[in-house]
Inverse folding.
């Protein structure tokens, strides 16, 4: 099974308003192993780069001035990804940029050249609902070293995402589950259900109850008497 992890850097955030791709990085995964077969190109966007985007990736228009245009590298890119499952973090963003670039050349969209597109951002949200799922957050969660990522870069981010994806989809390493055997209850005979252990209740001391009531009184004062917990505190505390 061949998979390609893909990332782009752009002149800005809005492809529909004319922002363009300036860097493409791809990493190949074959049978769940990163092969070292990479695709990496810088692209001359023939337009200015927004200040906000420049702060993210640090790629200047001057650096890109002698780089090929997208039209010059499009066929190489399509040849590289053809027939693979493509893995992208926040796929809608990158796919929109790529498809608009291809549309300008009269070429079919990316989906026509690959077998499928997987969005690892959506995948991470399903695995970790309510948590941060940026690439940096996922690297931290899966103990992947991203110390060199001081700025975004398409190839570096694709390499990190490949490691994140493999970690997210690794699954359980072993099907053997070790369970601690419960201790036999005193007095339980063979074939008889084990007795429940006696529940130990630790009562609050008078001093602890008094401190608890003092805190609740402060809450009641701030909430204009609306403190339902006061009714649960013993009056002689």
């Amino acid at each position: 099974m061949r998979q390609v992890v893909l990332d782009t850097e752009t002149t800005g955030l809005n492809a529909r308003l004319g922002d363009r791709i300036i860097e493409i990085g791809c990493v190949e995964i074959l049978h769940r192993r990163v092969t070292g077969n990479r695709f990496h190109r810088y692209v001359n966007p023939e337009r200015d780069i927004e200040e906000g985007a420049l702060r993210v990736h640090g790629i200047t228009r001057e650096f890109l001035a002698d780089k090929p245009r997208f039209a010059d590298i499009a066929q190489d890119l399509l040849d590289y990804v053809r027939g693979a499952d493509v893995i992208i973090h926040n796929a809608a963003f990158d796919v929109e940029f790529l498809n608009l670039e291809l549309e300008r050349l009269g070429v079919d969209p990316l989906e026509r050249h690959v077998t499928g597109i997987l969005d690892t951002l959506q995948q991470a949200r399903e695995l970790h609902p309510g948590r941060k799922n940026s690439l940096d957050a996922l690297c931290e969660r899966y103990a992947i070293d991203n110390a060199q990522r001081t700025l975004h870069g398409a190839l570096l981010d694709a390499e990190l995402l490949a490691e994140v994806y493999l970690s997210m989809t690794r699954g359980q390493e072993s099907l053997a589950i070790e369970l601690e055997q419960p201790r036999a209850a005193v007095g339980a005979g063979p074939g008889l259900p084990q007795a429940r252990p006696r529940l130990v209740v630790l009562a609050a001391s008078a001093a602890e109850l008094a401190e608890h009531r003092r805190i609740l009184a402060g809450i009641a004062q701030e909430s204009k008497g609306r403190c339902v917990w006061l009714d649960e505190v013993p009056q002689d505390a």
Notes: Residues 52 and 220 are 48 Å apart (CA to CA). The first strand starts at residue 2 and ends at 10.
